[in-house]
Write a structure and sequence with these properties.
By secondary structure, the protein is mainly alpha-helical. The protein has two domains: about 55 residues, no CATH class; about 70 residues, no CATH class. It is built from six helices and no strands. α4 runs antiparallel to α6. The N and C termini lie far apart (about 60 Å).
Length: about 160
């Protein structure tokens, strides 16, 4: 049965005058002692080729914790962004109130702004006019209030 096996061997050289390659040689010796060198070489080549192709399937298969790590980092950044937006909105509201505008009485209320599909052509004047006409009946004429309501709705959407 051993005669049916077809195996290939590949060799490469390390330049021991280069500190990073010398350190790599030490790691290779440890891997060989642990009998994991061949597996690491195979997995490493699969990983690098997968990443070169713009894919992460091998990375996530070899290191499933990476997905959770990046998700957590994204989530933490997202919360920080929301806090910064909320602080900025509070500063804007104070400035607007100082200029004589009325403060918003309660928390953010969703605006009934109809969704208009983005046009496939450059001349979107008709679509903009339709959007403005449909928004007029739902929104006040106080631009500062409209701005703050819009920003609060954006912030509320991020927290979900």
């Amino acid at each position: 049965m051993a005669a049916d096996r077809f195996r290939l061997q590949y060799k490469f050289w390390l330049d021991m005058n280069k500190p990073d390659e010398e350190a790599l040689a030490e790691v290779i010796d440890e891997l060989k002692q642990d009998r994991t060198y061949t597996r690491v070489v195979r997995d490493g080549i699969r990983l690098v080729v997968d990443l070169w192709r713009g894919r992460v399937e091998v990375l996530l298969a070899l290191f499933p914790w990476v997905e959770d790590y990046f998700y957590q980092r994204f989530k933490e950044q997202h919360v920080a962004d929301n806090d910064a937006i909320a602080q900025q909105l509070q500063r804007l509201e104070k400035l607007l109130v100082a200029q004589g505008n009325q403060p918003i009485a309660s928390g953010p209320k969703p605006l009934n702004v109809p969704r208009v599909a983005s046009p496939k052509h450059d001349d979107n004047a008709d679509d903009v006019a339709l959007l403005k006409a449909s928004m007029r009946k739902d929104m006040s004429t106080d631009s500062a209030e409209n701005f703050l309501k819009s920003m609060m709705n954006l912030q509320a959407g991020f927290k979900q």
